[in-house]
Amino acid sequence: MPRHPIRFGVCLPQHGSTWDDAVKVAQACDRLGYDSVWAVDHFFGIPDATQPIHEGWTEVTALAALTERVRLGHLVLCVSYRHPAVLAKMAATLDHVSNGRFILGMGAGWHQQEYTAYGLPFPSIGTRLKELDESLTILRKMWTEEPATFFGEQFHIEDAWCRPRPVQEPHPPILVGGTGERVLLRIVAEHANVWNNLGWAHRDLPKKLDVLRAHCDHVKRDFDTIEISQQTLGAIAETEAEAQRATEAICAELPFLSGGADLNITGTPEQCVERVRKSVAMGATSFVISFGRNPRIETLELFAERVMPAFR
Q: Over the stretch 193-208, which tens digit does the pLDDT of each residue have?
């Protein structure tokens, strides 16, 4: 049996879509029983920088006021874009706006073109990982200590207050996304409630879980307290022919999220159930699914009605 309930999240429309598209998908997920919805933290389209895209923090905050049940987060916030003390205050406020439904997703950042275009320093990956480690330390201190003080190599705070504190106790869940085994998974072991494995590394999940378990042992953390989230592609249709066309379309649109033809959650409802079971057997306990840049509501309905009940 999985260590945690099996959860299903959906990537929201942002690239080349309208605000109305985002609202429709978020509210459909809220109504259909999905566990979470997620926005990316990018300033322009990827790989096409000219493609319009909504800013993720603003989008999620607005959707928090337009939904009632579904949890909300970012996959993932770039550590370099917001000072951690300011982010702690923003997150505490969003936790109140959402009535305790916010998940804080963080990562080390990677898209150098974006940094350069917006005039932001792009330090080495080693420095960015130090920033991530220190940021998560500051976030947790700001949410649980009054006042909070921390002096690190990258950031410092002194007698910093965060009132009101978040709704969730002791604080909103922290998700860390990434695949680096030596440093990033050690950061997960020390700070995270959820680790999200990137889509392209889906096949490597069992190996990475062994590494994460070793890091947990080293820092004396119970490995079973960490929820394992797998980013993946999704495509579903009633017949095999329709499902094959949908699968080909999503793999062409988002090839960098594909973990392999036998692991993407694609196919007929019955085939999708088997794909989910295969990933659960590998160690995944939740899924963040991209059904395309702008998912069809009918697709979300079919998945919710025919796949999700097998895991509830």
A: 999 999 999 999 999 9
Q: How far apart are CA 104 and CA 35, in angstroms?
A: 15
Residues 6 or more apart from 294 whose CB is under 8 A from it? 13, 16, 17, 21, 25
- The tokens of 128 are what? 């960015």
Neighbours of 254 (CB within 10 A): 18
pLDDT for 47 equals 84
Output the pLDDT for position 1: 46
d(CA 236, CA 288): 15
Q: Which of 58, 63, 49 is nearest to 20 (CA)?
A: 63
Number of neighbouring beta carbons within 10 Å of residue 160: 19
Task: Report if pTM > 0.85.
Answer: yes
pLDDT of 43 above 60:
yes
pLDDT in tens, 83-130: 999 999 999 999 999 999 999 999 999 999 999 999 999 999 999 999
Residue 231, strand partner residues: 288
